[in-house]
Amino acid sequence: MRLLNFVDDGKIKLGIEKENKIIDVEKIALKYNADVPITMEEVLNDSSSIKKIENLCKGNEDGLDKNNIVYAPCVMNPEKILCVGLNYLTHREECNLDIPKEPVIFSKFNSSLAAHEEKIELPKDLHEFDYEAELIIVIGKEGKNIKRENADEYIFGYSIGNDLTSRELQFLTSQWTLGKVIDKFTPVGPIIVSKDELNISNLEVKCEVNGEVRQLASTKDMIFDCYSIVSYVSKYITLKPGDIIFTGTPGGVILGDTNPNKQWLKSGDEIKISIENIGTLINVLK
């Protein structure tokens, strides 16, 4: 199933993407007096409800045009936004860093979340802005000390993220956080695809800036795969439904460009991040 959040009259609503239509779950539930979750948070806390929603929406063609809706972040209020750094060989090589023996974990904040098609304002006193195309894991079940072979049980689905970064702030000190958590610097979406619909072992990941391909790789190139990441993090941090994990970016970021006159992202740039069988996350900088 392909789920999303959208804005309707100032309210965040749960939608199901079916071809070019968005089905308003609450509207259909009211129409048929059905007892189903009507928010993303409720679905993430009860993954068994997917079948109920799927059956309810089956055959309902009365949907909204996906090109005319206003998207919200596909997860609105995660308790945790965790990120894995240096998780593709190509990115490690361009940054001239050793292969990490364990996943490099850092965090982002809810205040940095942004939606598909949302315009993102750049701080005026900074200049070295960079993109990072990433597959996102969405957690659907609370877990601690999860074995790798059981990790899939705790995953609800997957989405797309852009770990926008101010390189100036990231490397100002030994701590990366400030360069990663600027307001709206964590676009996610447009949708979450439930895990049953994806083979995550070999998905194409692509980033385009103003139509030019900058990153092109496959999830098979990850140093630590999704299940290993979930298992590792859960040894120290209890994962909960709605938590999201950025799984790392491939090579091709601006930071890795050896040209001393390289061009950082700027106001007016359009960033498109596409992941095979999920979709495309688009944001324009201002």
UniProtKB/TrEMBL annotation:
One Pfam family per UniProt: FAA_hydrolase
Recorded superkingdom: Bacteria
Enzyme nomenclature, EC number: 4.3.2.3
Keywords: Lyase, Metal-binding
Domain Fumarylacetoacetase-like C-terminal positions: 80-284
InterPro entries noted in UniProt: FAH, Fumarylacetoacetase-like_C, Fumarylacetoacetase_C_sf
Keyword Lyase: yes
Enzyme class: lyase
UniProt keyword annotation of Transcription present: no
GO molecular function: ureidoglycolate lyase activity
Family: Belongs to the FAH family.
PANTHER family documented for this protein: FUMARYLACETOACETATE HYDROLASE DOMAIN-CONTAINING PROTEIN 2A, FUMARYLACETOACETATE HYDROLASE DOMAIN-CONTAINING PROTEIN 2A-RELATED
Name the UniProt record assigns to this protein: Ureidoglycolate lyase
Organism listed in the record: Sarcina ventriculi
